[in-house]
Amino acid sequence: MFVGTKSGRTLCQLSGGSVTCLVDFVVNTPIRYGAPANGVSVNTLGDFESTPGDAGQQPYNTLDYEVEYRTLGWTITPTREGTTFTNDRTGHGMTVSVEGAMPF
Predict the structure, then answer these.
(1) CA dihedral (14, 18, 21, 27) positive or negative
(2) What DSSP string describes 75-96?
(3) What's the whole-model pTM score?
(4) Alpha-carbon Rg of the chain, whole angstroms?
(5) Which sign does the torsion angle of CA 63, 68, 69, 75 carry?
(6) Is the distance from CB of 89 to CB of 44 less than 8 angstroms?
(7) How far does CA 93 lie from the centroid of its chain?
(8) Which of 34, 53, 58, 88 has the fewest Cβ atoms nearer than 10 Å?
(9) How far apart are CA 98 and CA 72, in angstroms?
(10) pLDDT at res. 54
(11) 91: Cβ–Cβ under 8 A, 6 or more apart, which residues?
(12) How far is the C-alpha of 23 from the C-alpha of 39, rounded, in Å?
């Protein structure tokens, strides 16, 4: 499943085992493999990685702010400050915003 924020600055792909997001970071974008790491991912165990990525031409479902969504074993909570993805089984996930990403 593909979802994106209302601002269009965060686009994510969810599967049962992980969430991967491409983010238009505004500060301190890390460099990985010689390119800006605009991609972040977390799996159900909380393992986190940042990598360069490209959103491609996928059809994204736009998330409304302050509405909680549940899909593929994840709870998605988008706000104007960031979007949180929490695995329903393990409680691990991440919060993503244009300022950065924080796994938990």
Answers:
(1) positive
(2) EEEE-SS-EEEEETTT--EEEE
(3) 0.91
(4) 12
(5) positive
(6) yes
(7) 9
(8) 34
(9) 24
(10) 80
(11) none
(12) 6
